[in-house]
Recover the amino acids of this structure.
């Protein structure tokens, strides 16, 4: 049987999100969730019955918060909220992101502070487990009251509206109902609002990006070690005593990873005591732990923020049954997530930037320690890997644009009731292509370094680098004559994304 993530209302772990979004794990509602949710639901029902003024329950939404809604219209209000807020546009979100959003929304509602019935998170989990995935447009959120438009589209199938994707095919929710794939609910007071308010869209993006970024920083260390060998660089900058005196955790970890890969290298041994050979290597080689390590530390900061969010109540209003209060606040504001999504974009882009410099050094005969121009067997007749640096440079340039922070911007919405917004959704949307671009850049470095190592024979690299060389060569042969290499770059990028590089390093 496959793994199952239990939704109890308690915090989840980032690994739980990855398991459901990418690993095929199912989710289940914990046995005590209904009991946990009951007091808050009772307080909401009491507010409706007494005709109290409670935001989003007996009032309108956003700029319409001062407009009263009668108790007999409370259920209609919830349906209207879903319909009116489903204003997203653009290409649909990828399936893995939709799965993560379904899981995280169900977790939030199960905490017992939203005032909804257990049927609501149960229905979200049912969509997830059946792989009946709502079609959610990718544009339309400013990260203010959470990700309103995306969550409206995520929730519409619960009332039999909108679109769903089943086995790769998109269909109307009404058709899914007719086919027995969907069981619509009738929403009650506050439930539509609770399905809309929250930061779980940004949080889902963050969890997936943290997983990708950890994999990338490990791959960057691996690629750097290959490049150090190909360029006959020194292993001395990775000695542990250097990093103990500047004890950033990521720097220490990166240096140790690279040093392990360089250990027992015949190439390094051939010049290790030759202090004239390379008194100082270029920054892109000897400063790699300081750069890669700073990226790792940024990822760890992002993970700490995401982990707090994985146990947070981000609904609005929030129900406190112990105090008998329903309080409207701002826990839905996406600023904590907007910042880390921007920070991740900046940090990961730097992995690509320093990798491109190592690529260029290996290809330039003036700076490559004796390697032929562009690593061609017959430079001039053949161009070798010349154009791969163009591709890497183009992706670095694109990342410089994408890495501009979204969270410094704000556009007022809802008649300026929501007069400061986080733009966290936009920060997450542009992080995904940054990660994709950097994966490609590091793949290029690995492919170039593998070719460079061919020219160092009969001297062999260390066993760690040899494993990486063998992995690349299992998919991409040496470049003896010119051939199209775009597909080969994509192949090595898939080795990084699939975890094959991690497995070769013993990390998988």
């Amino acid at each position: 049987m496959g793994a199952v993530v239990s939704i109890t209302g308690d915090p989840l772990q980032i690994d739980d999100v990855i398991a459901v979004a990418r690993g095929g794990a199912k989710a289940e509602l914990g046995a005590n969730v209904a009991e946990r949710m009951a007091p808050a639901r009772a307080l909401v029902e009491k507010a409706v019955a007494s005709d109290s003024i409670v935001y989003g329950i007996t009032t309108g939404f956003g700029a319409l918060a001062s407009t009263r809604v009668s108790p007999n219209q409370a259920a209609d209000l919830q349906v209207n909220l879903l319909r009116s807020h489903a204003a997203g546009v653009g290409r649909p979100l990828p399936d893995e992101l939709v799965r993560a959003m379904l899981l995280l929304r169900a977790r939030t509602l199960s905490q017992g502070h939203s005032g909804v019935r257990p049927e609501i998170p149960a229905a979200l989990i049912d969509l997830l487990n059946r792989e009946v995935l709502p079609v959610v447009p990718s544009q339309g959120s400013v990260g203010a009251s959470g990700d309103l438009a995306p969550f409206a589209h995520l929730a519409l199938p619960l009332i039999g509206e909108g679109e769903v994707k089943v086995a790769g095919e998109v269909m109307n929710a009404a058709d899914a109902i007719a086919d027995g794939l969907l069981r619509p609910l009738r929403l009650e007071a506050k439930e539509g609002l609770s399905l809309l308010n929250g930061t779980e869209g940004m949080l889902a993006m963050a969890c997936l990006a943290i997983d990708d970024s950890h994999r990338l920083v490990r791959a960057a260390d691996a690629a750097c070690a290959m490049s150090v060998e190909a360029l006959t660089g020194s292993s001395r900058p990775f000695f542990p005593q250097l990093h103990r005196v500047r004890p950033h955790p990521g720097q220490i970890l990166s240096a140790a990873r690279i040093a392990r890969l360089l250990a027992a290298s015949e190439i390094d041994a051939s010049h290790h005591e030759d202090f004239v050979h390379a008194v100082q290597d270029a920054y892109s080689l000897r400063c790699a732990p300081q750069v890669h390590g700073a990226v790792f530390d940024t990822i760890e900061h992002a993970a700490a923020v995401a982990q707090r969010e994985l146990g947070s109540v981000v609904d609005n209003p929030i129900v406190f049954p112990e105090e008998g209060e329903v309080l409207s606040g701002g826990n839905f504001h996406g600023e904590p997530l907007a910042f880390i999504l921007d920070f991740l974009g900046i940090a990961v882009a730097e992995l690509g930037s320093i990798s491109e410099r190592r690529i260029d050094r290996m290809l330039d005969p003036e700076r490559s320690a004796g390697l032929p121009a562009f690593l061609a067997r017959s430079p001039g007749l053949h161009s070798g890997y010349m154009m791969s640096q163009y591709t890497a440079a183009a992706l670095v340039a694109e990342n410089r644009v994408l890495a501009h922070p979204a969270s410094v911007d704000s556009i007022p919405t809802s008649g300026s009731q929501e007069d400061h917004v986080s733009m966290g959704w936009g920060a997450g949307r542009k992080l995904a292509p940054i990660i994709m671009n950097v994966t490609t850049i590091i793949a290029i470095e690995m492919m170039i370094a593998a070719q460079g190592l061919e020219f160092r024979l009969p001297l062999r690299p260390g066993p760690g680098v040899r494993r990486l060389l063998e992995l690349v060569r299992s998919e991409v042969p040496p470049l003896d004559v010119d051939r199209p290499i775009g597909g080969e770059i994509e192949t090595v990028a898939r080795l990084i994304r699939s975890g094959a590089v991690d497995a070769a390093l013993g990390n998988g």
Remarks:
- The longest helix spans residues 200-230.
